[in-house]
Design a protein that fits this description.
By secondary structure, the protein is of the alpha/beta class. The protein contains 11 helices and 12 strands. The strands form 3 sheets. It has a 7-stranded parallel sheet with strand order 3-2-1-4-5-6-10, with helices on both faces. Helix 1 packs across helix 6 and helix 7 crosses helix 11. The protein is globular. The relative contact order is 0.14.
Length: about 300
């Protein structure tokens, strides 16, 4: 594959998007941030900003001309915009597309069966078809839960408030990555295009359980915990019922998310084969995770999932 130089990033102002733009820019890529027209004050200097209408393939086609790669960092609530991005990218000869995966292993048969993942599965199918039609390749980057984000907002645990929900007893070991490592993985896919061509790519900073995170938190933020218990099988039943009833509230499906992460080996957790070495991802020691927790506690973050 010819060298990748010009990279467009969709969803550029989100947590993953901003980290990705910075990582790509630092690695020497010429980066274009795609924007709907809102605030772009957070976009670093040296990054081109292009206003685009994600509902228009024509608009996307104009913006993506001359790009070697497209990285989609759109949020879970904007995944429906990805088919237009793929269509436009393929039409203008983009060489590599990285869709918004960055989480659970959606190549795992049981994981990909969740209705909440239908948009991601649709894109995987579309990318395979576009490769046959235009030669545009793809990388599917799987990272596990976002460790720093999940500890800041309480999705994994509320380490500052010492509150949270232990899923299936808190004993399940899951793959996790920091947002910076997700960005490093994205950048790595583009620095190693042949090694990451048309396949799932797996990275993690650590494989860890909630119970162990409680132990590490107690070392830097000791005190009483307010911990609830939840069974992910029951949570998935509730999510399935909400899906069958066509509940318009996307949060009604969140039980599926906890099941696909904390359901264990049946859902590919933790990852068995990693690409860390290819990207020089060292992982995090317990001491480094303690430092992360200490910094989160100092920031006074207030979890939103609790």
């Amino acid at each position: 594959m010819s060298q990748i130089k010009n990279v467009a990033v969709a969803g550029a102002t989100g947590n993953i998007g901003l980290a990705t733009i910075n990582a790509l820019h630092a690695a020497g890529f010429t980066v274009t941030a795609l924007s709907r027209g809102g605030s772009t004050a957070s976009i670093p200097a040296g990054v081109r900003i292009a206003t685009v209408d994600y509902t228009s393939v024509e608009s996307l086609t104009k913006v993506l001309k001359g790009q070697d790669a497209v990285v989609s960092c759109v949020s879970a609530f904007a995944l429906a915009s990805q088919p237009n991005i793929v269509e436009a990218a393929s039409a203008v000869g983009v060489k590599r597309f990285i869709p918004a995966e960055f989480g659970a292993d959606t190549l795992n048969p049981q994981t990909r069966a969740f209705p909440i993942l239908k948009d991601k599965i649709q894109i995987q199918t579309m990318l395979a078809e576009k490769y046959e039609q235009s030669g545009m390749t793809y990388s599917l980057l799987f990272t596990g839960l976002f460790l720093d984000w999940g500890l800041e907002n309480g999705m994994i645990l509320g380490v500052e408030s010492r509150k949270g929900t232990l899923y299936d007893g808190g004993k399940t070991v899951i793959s996790t990555s920091t947002i910076a490592t997700v960005a490093k993985g994205i950048t790595g896919c583009l620095l190693h295009p042949e090694e990451t061509k048309n396949r799932g790519v797996y990275i993690q900073d650590t494989a860890i359980s909630q119970n162990h995170l409680v132990e590490l938190t107690n070392k830097v933020n000791p005190g009483e915990w307010d911990l609830k218990e939840a069974n992910t099988v029951e949570l998935e039943k509730q999510a399935s019922a909400a899906h069958e009833q066509k509940d318009p509230n996307p949060m009604s499906m969140v039980g599926s998310v906890f099941r696909m992460y904390f359901g264990g080996e049946a859902y590919g957790q933790p990852f068995k084969k990693l690409d860390n070495e290819l990207f020089d991802i060292k992982g995090l020691s317990d001491e480094e995770i303690e430092t992360m927790i200490r910094n989160i506690c100092k920031s006074g973050s207030k979890p939103s999932f609790i």
